[in-house]
Amino acid sequence: NVSIGIAFFLRSASVNHGCDRNCEPCIVGPQLRLISLRPIDPGEELTISYVNSIDAVQTKADFLRSTYHFS
User: Fold this and answer.
1) Cα separation of 23 and 47, whole Å?
2) What gap in Å lies between CA 1 and CA 42, rounded to an integer?
């Protein structure tokens, strides 16, 4: 048996992709938290990766192009 859940986190849905991300999303109970990966300057945009960091560069590029219309 495999359980699959889907959730929509309104605030974190507006976080942009960054190839050199500064946050990692982490689900804690009913919350999605952004955990900083390094010190973040005041006013700096919070970014996460929309792709699996261990995938090949071309795989990530293809996914971003087909899913998020990156160019």
Assistant:
1) 6
2) 45
